[in-house]
Design a protein that fits this description.
The chain is mainly α and 170 residues long. The protein has one domain: TerB-like, CATH 1.10.3680. The protein has eight helices and no strands. The protein has helices at residues 7-22, 31-43, 50-67, 75-93, 98-106, 115-127, 134-146, 151-160. The radius of gyration is 19 Å and the shape is globular.
Length: 170
């Protein structure tokens, strides 16, 4: 039992304050931006393939576990979100306002601590069908640069040149 005004109580209070300040949860409303990024990769090459949507569902579940395990997102919810938003994503990917849309998607989640996990999922979706298109490369490159992760570009450029990475490198 901790006593009031004891040194142990003071240390405990400071430790819980530090934890509370550092453990800022990822807001559920910001998931739409993560889903948009992953969805843009699916529609980037002009066709929606089963392999890409399967990896999309797996990636969202993996990100949910890493970012916020308490959040409930089912495979069916992922599917519904993608089907409802696919027309918008397809329209944006071919429009002149693509860069603006991409940056409006990236900006709200710029402080997210799991950016590299999101980028890795984007790459997994992009290479899942065996065709790593120029638009997919551009989307991933712009994401890395905007989020200030240029060191990741070398890894993803190796993929685009046909050098396959081990699973632990993705």
């Amino acid at each position: 039992m901790l006593l009031k005004n004891s040194k142990a109580a003071d240390i405990y209070e400071r430790a819980t304050d530090v934890y509370a300040k550092s453990a800022v949860p990822f807001p559920p409303s910001d998931w739409k931006y993560v889903l948009r990024l992953l969805g843009l990769v699916i529609v980037a090459n002009g066709k929606t393939l089963r392999e890409e949507t399967d990896i999309f569902h797996d990636a969202v579940n993996e990100l949910r576990v890493v970012i916020d395990p308490s959040l409930c997102i089912t495979r069916h919810m992922n599917h519904d979100w993608f089907e409802l938003n696919r027309p918008v994503l397809e329209d944006v990917i071919e429009s002149a306002s693509f860069d603006k849309f991409l940056y409006q998607t990236l900006a709200p989640i710029k402080s997210m601590p799991h950016k590299l996990d999101v980028i890795s999922c984007m790459v997994r979706i992009a290479v899942s069908n065996g065709d790593y298109s120029n638009l997919e490369k551009s989307l991933i490159n712009k994401t890395c640069l905007y989020w200030k992760h240029p060191e990741q570009l070398a890894r993803y450029r190796r993929i685009s040149q046909g050098v396959f990475l081990d699973a632990d490198e993705l």
